[in-house]
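hiii, so i know i said id send this last week but things got crazy w the move. better late than never?? heres the sequnce for the chain we talked about at the cafe, plus the structure i predicted for it. fair warning i was half asleep when i ran it
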Amino acid sequence: MSNFQEIFKRIEVKYLLDETTYRRLRERLKGMAEVDRYGESSILNIYYDTPDYRLIRTSLDKPLYKEKLRLRSYGTPTKESPAFVEIKKKYDGVVYKRRIDMKYADALDYLNQSIDNNMSETDRMNNNRTDDKINHPEKESITARDHKNPKDKEKIVNHQIRREIDSMRDYYKNLQPMMAISYDRIAMFGTEDPELRITFDRNIRYRTDRLDLRYGNVGTDILKPNQRLMELKIAGAMPIKLARIFSELRIYPVSFSKYGRGYVDMMQIAAERRTRVVPGFGYSSEKGEVAYAG
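okay and structure toks below
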């Protein structure tokens, strides 16, 4: 069984910090949160979307419900190293994430194959995305939750998650790799509250060419120099002590999407250059010349 959690349900709040505020906060967090055993590590993602970027355009409109599909690795992968296919949903401020792990090469094959060849007709009928299912992800359940055999439970859970991913791919029909997002992360966990997670990301970059995680953390920078994105991940209300620290340091929440920022920046550059975006390559001029993005 994977050492990584496959199912998440939590509230995520984001903050932008300058280096001085970051260092002051880290000092105040001593005794309250600790850095996990991975220290600072690179997280690499490929976001799958429609050719017209329907998923991220919808997300930027801030609807009640939104979803994303991505391929993730922790560190630069090889063909044999583990990778995660994730479906991330957000409904009414609460994040629901499902993911399955497999070898990186297998994950690429799975995501890039035709969904028509991947789903049986029975699965297609059982995974019909009704309005209720789309708008109420909190109603989705893992049928193996009470299964006694851990191995059987893992198989059933993975099968259900894979069907959810296939259902999403079938619904949008033509999802394909559209943008790579990468960054270096320090993750902390609460010493008293194990559900508390705080992450600090720097060197956040995007690219629309070379959509393969084996290129590592390369691309166009999204953040300003010496800036970090902090994410607070909690199951319920923010701890009072932490809220006081944020207030004293004047740390306030912001609306921030890494993929969204990359998309907006990409479109602004395309408009300035009077070019169009070519998925997987970069920008193409009216003369057909390609300029790589990131």
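btw The CA atoms of residues 133 and 139 lie 7 Å apart. thought thatd interest u
miss u guys!!
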